[in-house]
Amino acid sequence: MHCIVLKLYYLCRMNTENQNAQMRKGVLELCILAIIAKQDAYASDIITKLKEAKLIVVEGTLYPLLTRLKNDGLTVYRWEESKSGPPRKYHQITETGMKYLAGLTADWQDLIGSVEKIIGIN
Amino acid sequence: MKKTLTINLGGIVFHIDEDAYISLNQYLENLKKHFSQEEGYQDILNDIESRIAEILNEKRSETKQVITLEEVAEVIAIMGQPVEIDPEENPQSNNQSPDTEKGNKRFFRNPDEKIIAGVCSGIAAYFHLDPVWVRLIFIIFIAAGGSGFLLYLVLWFVIPEAQSTTDKLEMRGKKVNISSIEESMRKEISALRGQIGQMASESAATVKRAGAGSRSFFEVIGKGVVEVLAFFGRGLVILSGIILIIIGLSLLVALLAYTLGWTGGLYSDNEFTVLAFPELAKLLIGCNMPVGFLQVILLMVLGIPLLMLFYNGLRMVFRFDRIRHLGLTMFNIWVLALFFLASSALKIYNLYKFDDKKQIDIALEKPDCDTLFVSMFQDDPGMKYLDNDQYILLADWKTIISEDKELYVLPKIQIEESNDSLFSITQVAMARGKSRLEAHQHLTALRFQSATSGSTLKISPFLRLPKEECWRGQIIDVIIRVPRGKYIHFTPEFQKLKLFWYYMINSSDESTFQMTENGIEVNQGADERKAKADSVSAETIRK
């Protein structure tokens, strides 16, 4: 997995509605990883936070991303008993995930800085 | 009142309305299809299922136990359609830009309106036609040389079957979105009600498969091979079914035509007519036995196997359930009919059991003459039928039915070599009957004239049976013995009768024959002599 921010940069130069979704998805990965890094979370927690931030429209979007993060070794999950139903899947960030998140955050800040500079000039 | 189902979704038990279940199941199927290329797609689906269960669980209360279609629709809206969830994943949905009204249109076989494999109804759905017209075109092509049949097989092989709702919408060229899926699902709900049980077991199988993890390469290959074999097997079965239908049906029609006498006679070639059964039976059996009874028996004995052939062909093609006890009933009827047929055959045999024979030597005034002239009685009623060239074959005898419904049988004329230097003629008459007396009566009722004067033999062209007489093997055999080196001359009328020995000699123009050491031969010398005599006489007249 290459730098999401570079991917975002690339996508900014295209102009379809679909690309908007792509960009959103790239940002989503960063956000999900950040949420999990703060505290182990299960799907509903993540959804609540993302919804508050108006980052997702349909909940279904989350699950493929979670699975991809897990497959890339950035997160792991464990099953935890729940009082109100069947066991829940709690996602937890790995060391690789932490490093990756750090790099990603730095990239993101760089990008925001650059973009703001350009916007400021114009 | 509505039927509900109990489902286990993400480890929680729900009571769900039937229509809501169908909708939810379809949604999950679509998701599964959408993510099936993704690594670990089963995880995604399980997570989504759990989340759906969670949302639905929150909506439940003490007073509201059953999940309805409305709630399922809400959940689907929350979770989002596959395209909304993950637009990147499906390149097909990327291509489908929002401004194409019609959406993707693809050829599918239509499993909902199929007769054989749904090829025709699939084509009809693609072009928005009534399937009847497409089928009609195929049938016309099959009738005109069978090319339609091959085309059908190829299309069957090439075009996939529409399995999911998305497929079925694409088959009709409708855009695939929530509302169109819902619309088509509503249409399907009524049709699907009967199949709910089957679908439930299918989804159970899906869960089982999910538990077993991803299928191995060999499992996929094995399944593919089985499917291909099943496909060819089915094709073969349908092909043989069609052949059985065609054979069974055409033979049945032929049998009916023959037994019931639709055509009166079957013309096997220009010269002979094979009589249809009723006419033949009337002649052969006559008034002694009801022909109708024999017709029924014959139809059963020959018709039942053909009918079963036809029925089994139909079953192979259209796969309907066997009709209970049909085979056994038919077999019993057939055995019974066979028994009656055997007893009838015995009765018929008895009608012909005894024979009688009358042999007369016809004396010639000049047995030592050089040439024997054979001619016909010009006033014989049979002379009218000399030009008839449609003979009916009755047990090898060429016969004619006259205008007065009398039976005319062609006599047999045999030419043999004489033992001495004299011509001699023997006439043998034969007839059969159920008793010696009856055989004799049949014999004496025969009408056949023969007479001699000088060196001329006159005979009737036909042996005639009186109107009321049935055919009981009456025959006339005229044996003419010709001394070696002598001649026999037939008048030209005999050529019209097409007697068998005429063919043997292989010359229908000649009418004078000589007995040689090699048997009877055309006497060309005699004809030349005659021709010379004619020209001489013509010269004489001129002079």
List the helices and strands and how they pair.
The complex is a heterodimer of chains A (122) and B (543).
Chain A: H1 4-12, H2 17-38, E1 41-42, H3 43-52, H4 62-71, E2 75-82, E3 85-93, H5 95-121
Antiparallel strand pairs in A: 1-3, 2-3
Helix pairs in contact in A: 1-2, 1-5, 2-4, 2-5
Chain B: E1 4-9, E2 12-17, H1 18-35, H2 41-59, E3 66-67, H3 69-79, H4 82-85, H5 91-95, H6 119-127, H7 131-143, H8 147-158, H9 165-171, H10 178-192, H11 196-211, H12 217-260, E4 265-267, E5 272-275, H13 277-284, H14 291-318, H15 326-351, E6 354-362, E7 371-376, E8 391-394, E9 397-401, E10 407-409, E11 412-417, E12 424-433, H16 436-444, E13 450-453, E14 456-459, E15 463-465, E16 475-482, E17 487-490, H17 493-497, H18 500-505, E18 512-516, E19 519-522, H19 524-542
Parallel strand pairs in B: 2-3, 5-8, 7-14, 7-17, 11-16
Antiparallel strand pairs in B: 1-2, 4-5, 6-12, 8-9, 9-10, 10-15, 12-16, 13-14, 17-18, 18-19
Helix pairs in contact in B: 1-2, 1-3, 2-3, 6-7, 7-8, 9-10, 12-14, 14-15
Structure report:
- The complex is a heterodimer of chains A (122) and B (543).
- Chain A starts with a helix and ends with a helix.
- Chain A is of the alpha+beta class and 122 residues long.
- Chain A is globular, with a radius of gyration of 16 Å.
- The longest helix of chain A is centred in the C-terminal third of the chain and has 27 residues, at 95-121.
- Chain A is built from 5 helices and 3 strands, in the order ααβααββα.
- Chain B contains 19 helices and 19 strands.
- Chain B has helices spanning 18-35, 41-59, 69-79, 82-85, 91-95, 119-127, 131-143, 147-158, 165-171, 178-192, 196-211, 217-260, 277-284, 291-318, 326-351, 436-444, 493-497, 500-505, 524-542; strands at residues 4-9, 12-17, 66-67, 265-267, 272-275, 354-362, 371-376, 391-394, 397-401, 407-409, 412-417, 424-433, 450-453, 456-459, 463-465, 475-482, 487-490, 512-516, 519-522.
- In chain B, strands 4-5-8-9-10-15 form a 6-stranded mixed β-sheet.
- The longest helix of chain B is centred in the middle third of the chain and has 44 residues, at 217-260.
- Mean pLDDT of chain B is 76; it is low at 89-102.
- Chains A and B meet through helix 2, helix 3, helix 4 and strand 3 of A and helix 2, helix 3 and helix 4 of B.
